[in-house]
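HUMAN: Quick job: go over this next protein and say how the chain folds.
***
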Amino acid sequence: MGRYALLVATGEYEDVRLSRLRAPEQDVERLAAVLEDPDVGGFTSVEVLRDKTDYEIRRAVEEVLAAREAEDLVLLYFSCHGLTTPARRLYFAASNTVQDRPAGTAIPRSFLNEQLEDCRASGRLLLLDCCFSGAFVEGFKAGETTVLDDVGTGYVVMTASNAYEYAFEQDSLSLDAPQASLFTDVLIEGLASGNADLDGDGWVDVDELFKYTQGEVRVRRPDQTPQFFAHGSSQPLRIARAGGAPGRQLRRTASYTSGQLLVSRGFRAAAEPVCRTLGPMGRRAVVFVDRRPVELSDASAIVAAFQPDDPRDSLGAGYVRDLVQEVRRDAGDGAASAVAVARGAIGGLVEAMRDGHNPVRLMRGVTAAAERAGELIREAAEPLEMPDVPALATAAAGDVEIGKLIGHVVAATGRRGPILVEESKGFGLEYEIGRGMRLDRGYASSMFVTDTARREAVLVDSRVLLKTGPLPRGLKTVFGNVGADQSVLVVCEELPRATLAELVRIGMKRPVVAVVADPDHLNRLQGVVGGSVLDGNLPGGSEILRSLGRAVKVVVTERDTVMFAGRASAGDDAAGLIWAGAEDVGKVERAVRAVHSAAHEGVLRGGGVGLAEVGARLAADAVGTAEEIAGWQAFAAAFAEPARRIAENAAITVEDLDPSLLDSAGVARVVVNAAARTASRFLLVG
């Protein structure tokens, strides 16, 4: 059984004699959202036509009705000017309708009636929010239908007015008013809130919906009379779920949009395979690459390959892809946890909007909660101890061997020591300890980036120029003494704008990166890479070559510079270089970044339990208006999602998760902030 809707809204007209209507655009957006909501309308497909010509509307009506099967329910909705002729013929205005020539430029009532009569769907509902829409019943032809217990049957028409009345845009006739239509506004209110479930059976059927709508419209405007016509109706047509039983707490009118529901639906579809990978017993997801199924366990690979079955899910899937990329860039680890938190937050926020809360005020609550969560994470974090490094690295990589190897490397370099990862030609894991250094200075310009996806500049077998004071111009001559393909790292105390521009131009022909650092950093660097710290003018010829240091590998981001200078007595400047096969490079990088993050910001209980504990404390700290608190609470509740999914994937309860597991507090902070930004982005969808 399928449920299909076509919503036609026309507010802009080429004929200036037909006044512009603001209500249709607003009405159709809100009605589409309610119908698409899986917990309310649950419609399989909702198509919206805005300001289309009569030909486009007729074609769409015919396509949606002709494709239906006997067990289907189909709903048509028109919000536009209704036009009647002296002979009492009713037409529905399209964008190209000529007011006094509707027969050739508008949608005739007879066309809609014939199409609905010929449609095979057992349930057919036509909603008309137009002036004089009650005229549709004149000449109505009865027809027989097949009885289906689970849907209800029949051909039903609900109109905003009788054959002689105008339909009102709140306090004015159908003119240029900013408010929504009274009829559709009440209709949506009854569906979204559940108030139209008059018998309390958990469903809103068309009979109840009409009684509710007629009563509310007549109370607010006695001179508007909604009409109801049913032919061949053996059982009530169920339009929406209301939920609960008699005495339940009714919802307020939903505040979400159809766009938000589309994002939510697509986000769930793309998030599910990512969440299945969470934890030590995380599963592999099967996605199709070039129409062939492939097993993947990495969040980045999954979202890159994921193609939704329904094209409407593409937007929400894009949210998941952006979130994974952001977390991988900022923390290395935690992408799947961020997806789980964001998914839980979006679900909770949809519920809040279903209860009528304003999305902008909800967003303020989410933003405030994320800020407070950062404080709570810092308070809950414990220092990372050396014996805990292998366990933390194992949890981040999902691989015991990688965890052990990183434990050995960190034992030599220290918890904050520089470690670089490089892809090897083989399949095993190897490492080397030597001289190296981490500098808390990044590149002077993003123009030096060599890997745009990771926003990194990577130099291999690089020469290093160290310079106190301002770096002078004329570098092209100096660089001419260095091999044409040789990469160069420039670290200087001052970098004038003109010199930076010159370096950027040189960087278009060879790998070059410039970093600005203090004199004490330059002196320490000289002890790592060799060469000399230059002052004054730069020498030329062979002298410049002798003054340059060397580095096996350098990775520069916008925040820091990490270099490995090669084998030697490590001393105080120990660094590690790890070689891993292509399939393990990403795992090793995630584990290294998790360890460094934990070294700076501490650790929480692992398996998502620490994050869930922060969420519980966060919920208790909620402040603000009622709507801000609703957003705060929806976000805080989502912190329990990673632990729940990890336990679910391992077929255990959260209470049975390994208490020795650890998570980086720094990664947790990135997860929370990224999920909050995703939730805020979702709330601002119009």
Notes: The CA atoms of residues 446 and 452 lie 9 Å apart. The chain has three domains: 3-241, 258-381+605-683, 387-602. The two ends are 30 Å apart (CA to CA).
